[in-house]
Amino acid sequence: MFSNNHRLKFVFAVFLVFLSLCAVEAQAWGGPKIEDLVRRGDEAFYERNYEKSRERYSEAVKIKPRAVAPHVMLGRLYYAMARYTQAKREFETALSLHPDAVIRKFLESALNHMNNTAEILRRIEAVPDTPANRSALVTLHEAAAQRMYQDRAYMALLGAHLRYMLEADPKNSVLRAGIADAFYLSSDSVSAVVLYEELVRLSPRNRPLLKRLADTYISLGRFDQASMSYKKALRESVRTGDREEIDALLKLIRALPAPFGKVRLLAEDKEDYAGAIAALKRRLDLNGNDLGAMTMMGALYEQVEEDAKAEKLYKTALEIDPEYPYAHFYMGRWLLLKKKKFEEAVDELNLFKEYLEAAGYRPSVTGKTKEMILKDRVQASRYLATIYSEVLNRKNTAIQELQQALVLAPKDAELYYDLGASYAGAKKRMSAIQSFKKVIELKPKSELAKEAENAIDIIRSYGDNGRYTSPW
Questions:
Q1: CATH number for the domain harbouring residue 62
Q2: Which of 206, 241, 256 is the last residue of a domain?
Q3: How far apart are CA 21 and CA 18, in angstroms?
Q4: What are 326-378's pLDDT values in tens digits?
């Protein structure tokens, strides 16, 4: 987006600034430590590692706020990145500390870029959007984007200009990243994350992209995915041997709340329910709308017999997002097992199925792995089949529910056992026997297989008089 000539002119001008700074008192540099930080910032700048350059200059400013050189170099960096509002601020600070004609020219240049934005927008509006004008318009949109980039006041407009440029160059990943940045900086993280994910799929080892994706996940409260993205960036840093970047990424990863997998380990393997609940509370402190943490905490409260707290969490999750699948799953299970409100439980479990399917069973929607989602989906069908068969006397509906679940989990022996029991309850003798045989085929040496063999013996011993249904 920025021409080489533009950068070269700027670098030459900065050299003039250095000459002028060399003539002023030591306060301009602030001592050897500040000089070293600025030098390291310069090295990163010329390598186009702008983020590392910014970190060095900013550290120098923090240590010695009245040193002139760090403000000038930070202003130069923002100017090169077309972040003119921030460049203006740094040049004004430098000028207040040390009146200098070259610094003043930098400030005037930054102001000129900022003031020209309205004129460029007027020119864009005046040019008809026709194929003949497309090249000229792309140039104008690029000029507007240069002035708007990362200036929060223009974020919404910036995205529109970059999208126009992308239509003319659809394979330009830099433009896509720019649009994602615009969305992120304008607090539209939902749109930003879609673009960042697409860019990471195209460039899976791009460390800056992985970090930006992680930052966007954090803004959405998706901490587990942020952790995975940071860890991928960490692997790339280890591969390149960047010790400083490794330390920075490790610090970011450690600052994140415990992932759901670790919480489950505490609860299921170690039975440390208090520790698991505390970890989930931390997630909710960081993001009060973390529905995955909310519903999981509700399930843990059920484990420790704090039913009122569990119910409150499920209801809160449903109020925040009535279409969140797992709020319906846990509420349905609650109504079935705790309240014995069977018809209400059926409604909630069916909504779980509906919204889960609408979400495409995506882990990002639920905070669970695909295997866990499938397991819960099958469990919902088993709950429903139990209610249909044993409470509502809808035997055929129970059979249909289990058949649908077997499409998702065709090797689930427990589902076949439940289906055999439902067939038996509906007096469908041969279908029941075939289902129980499938249990034996899938798990031949299990206790479940023994129960299936017993069920077959009972069905055959009673013939077709229907009394064999009593064991179920």
A1: 1.25.40.10
A2: 256
A3: 5
A4: 999 999 999 999 999 999 999 999 999 999 888 776 665 555 678 888 999 99
Any domain includes 406: no
Q: Which domain holds residue 234?
A: 188-256
Nearest-Å Rg of the Cα atoms of the chain is 32
Using the 3D structure, point to which of 202, 221, 256 is the last residue of a domain.
256
- Helix or strand (DSSP H, E) at 452: helix 447-462
> What's the total number of domains in the chain?
2
**Chain Cα centroid distance, residue 53:** 27
In terms of average pLDDT, the best of 73-82, 281-290, 314-323 is: 314-323
pLDDT digits over 178-195, tens only?
Answer: 667 766 766 677 878 887
DSSP-derived secondary structure letter, 445: T
Mean pLDDT of 201-211: 88
Q: Does 411 reside within a domain?
A: no
| 362 phi, psi to nearest 5 deg | -75, 130
Give the span between the Cα atoms of 293 and 263, in whole angstroms. 10
Helix axis angle for 243-255 and 223-240, nearest 10°, is 170
157 vs 145: CA distance, rounded Å: 8
